[in-house]
């Protein structure tokens, strides 16, 4: 079967594809190297997220025991402004930084709430922070 340009655009990279198209071998090799970096970055991000949630769970316990609310908008306003600035300095679209912040803080607050409902017991989160 002949290959049209639209077929080509739907092609994903695998060894057979690379062998069948030696003219793209350089691109395939470069993509593979970049994917190794992407995998390393994803590993680091997941490890950092695990540490962040372990840390915010400790904050959740302290808040529950002290009778503080899960949410602190003053702190969040500071984080919004700070991450916006850091994103721009780093060359990242600040919308992505805000999406990240919104995601982690929302999840942290849900966990704070669960800890508070369990009377300050972080065991309610089981093995997952
Ligand atoms: O710093 C706090 O007070 C937290 O509870 C942590 C955290 C966060 O995930 O960074 C979560 C909820 C608050 O609204 C603000 C920040």
Automatic annotation (TrEMBL):
What positions belong to coiled-coil segments? none
Looking up SMART domains in the UniProt record yields:
CM_2
- The Chorismate mutase domain sits at 25-116
> Disordered: where is this region?
1-20
Enzyme Commission code: 5.4.99.5
Q: Which InterPro entries has this protein been placed in? A: Chorismate_II_sf, Chorismate_mutase-related, CM_bact, CM_dom_sf, CM_II_prokaryot
Q: Name one GO biological process term.
A: chorismate metabolic process
Q: Which Pfam families does the UniProt entry name for this protein? A: CM_2 (PF01817)
Reading the lineage from the top rank, the first entry is Bacteria
Isomerase listed as a keyword = yes
Q: Where is the composition biased (Polar residues)?
A: 1-15
**What terms describe the molecular function in GO for this protein?**
chorismate mutase activity
Keyword terms, alphabetized: Isomerase
NCBIfam families listed in its UniProt record = CM_mono_cladeE (TIGR01795), PRK09239.1 (NF006691)
Protein's name in the database: Chorismate mutase
What is the scientific name of the source organism? Answer: Bifidobacterium imperatoris
């Amino acid at each position: 079967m002949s290959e049209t340009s639209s077929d080509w655009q739907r092609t994903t990279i695998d060894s057979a594809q690379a062998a069948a198209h030696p003219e793209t071998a350089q691109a395939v090799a470069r993509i593979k190297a970049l994917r190794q970096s992407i995998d390393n970055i994803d590993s680091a991000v997941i490890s950092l997220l695990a540490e962040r949630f372990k840390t915010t769970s400790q904050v959740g316990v302290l808040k529950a025991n002290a009778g503080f609310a899960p949410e602190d908008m003053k702190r969040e306003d500071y984080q919004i402004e700070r991450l916006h600035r850091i994103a721009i300095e780093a060359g990242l679209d600040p919308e992505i930084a805000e999406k990240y912040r919104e995601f982690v803080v929302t999840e942290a607050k849900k966990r704070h709430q669960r800890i508070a409902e369990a009377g300050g017991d972080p065991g309610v989160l089981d093995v997952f922070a």
